Amino acid sequence: MNQSALFTDFYSLTMAHGYWKTGMDRRAVFEVFFRRNPFDGGFSIFAGLEPLLARIGAFAFSPEDIAFLAGRGIFEAGFLDYLRDFRFRGSLWAMDEGRVVFPQEPLIRMDGGLIECQILEGLILNQINFSSLIATKTARVWLASGKGSVMEFGLRRAQGLDGAMSASRAAYIGGAFGTSNVLAGKEYGIPVLGTMAHSWVMSFPREEDAFRTYADIFPGNPVFLIDTVDTLKSGVPSAVKVGKELAERGINFGVRLDSGDIDYLSREVRRRLDEAGLPRATISVSNDLDENIIHTLHEAGAPINSWGVGTRMVTGGNDAAFTGVYKLTAKEAEDGTLVPTIKFSDNPEKTTTPGVKQVWRIRDGEGMTVADLLTLDEEEEPAKGRAYTLWHTSADYRHFYHTLEAGAEALLKPRIRGGEPAGEAPDLEKIRAVTQADLEIFDGSYKRIMNPHTYKVSITPKLRDLKLGLIKRFLGDL
Questions:
Q1: Is the overall model pTM greater than 0.90, yes or no?
Q2: I need a labelling partner for 150 at 20 to 30 A (CA). Which of 135, 268, 343, 472 fits?
């Protein structure tokens, strides 16, 4: 893989030039975190890490890239020479891809030279934000279906070629059991699925002929699209006739609804299939579905076996972007020490939490999650049996007391050390399994589609004192 280092925001290069010019390229620590869960939800899914790591490893300026920058007329020749040999030689810590994550906690920690960390900002956020958005959306859809069979088929509505590929991969992590995207099937090993379009049915004199021909060519559990002419007057009778012929040969089939009142039609279709002696025939539905529609249909008991979701899954639907940001949390001083930094804002949500940090997931004695705890990297590991005061990340008055019933799990793990890969590189099936296992350890109140409970992300007293001290110093200097 080749990844042009021009895939960055222009300001990253102008700042990098400034750091180089003024001799400021010292050690720095940046963190990736996000500010709110998308879709008014109670959780998010961390996705996009493994493709990001591959791209960081290949991130470099080609001779053509250098020539392009030289043509801008603002970069000095010495800086361009520096960029010719650019590679990320620092370290990257991250949560495992597929983990359930929450606002204000670090997903990725970058530790390296100020210039290299700055230039990588755009790539990191681009890869993490979109994939996390789609994985989160799909997880919500999957949960809304009662952890049923959800197919992603949004290729034609996705945001360009890379958007379609990234969306298919992220949707599989989030819970989709397959994709219509054939290239994603080849590249990522995702099961490739599909039935027929209305154009197939319209190409034949009768729906019955379209169904029979398709079943003859693809006898492995064919699915008939029954709403091309009239679902109940034409589609179902034709499907029943062909379905009986298939049943005599020991072949099962299904039907798909892509329009109309899905609740009413699915019930009526189920009734007619059962009356025809075809109780094993399945019903699939599509037509601009999202988690809210699916939740309503599932809760109402609509007899639906699988769900096809496209546009509102691969685009994020009503939430256009994941709110991931990339902030400096520590920098090397002139004496070589690492000094915590803070970005202050009148909006507490935008005031960052300083320092080099670790994230710990705390569970109760039954293995269910209690809270995520941010500690300074220098602090001791949270220990079983110890009592803690856990403070809100805004460092205000909100806090609670908790005695650890079990150990705590460190979520940030090394993935790059000194520019070289570190740690396990899991395949997509393992990442998908991480998501499904992680969702099981969170109470259902955090996973509700509507009005979910807010999960506690907390900081230690030591980290709170550091944050408040920097805020007071910041205000005192004004």
A1: yes
A2: 268
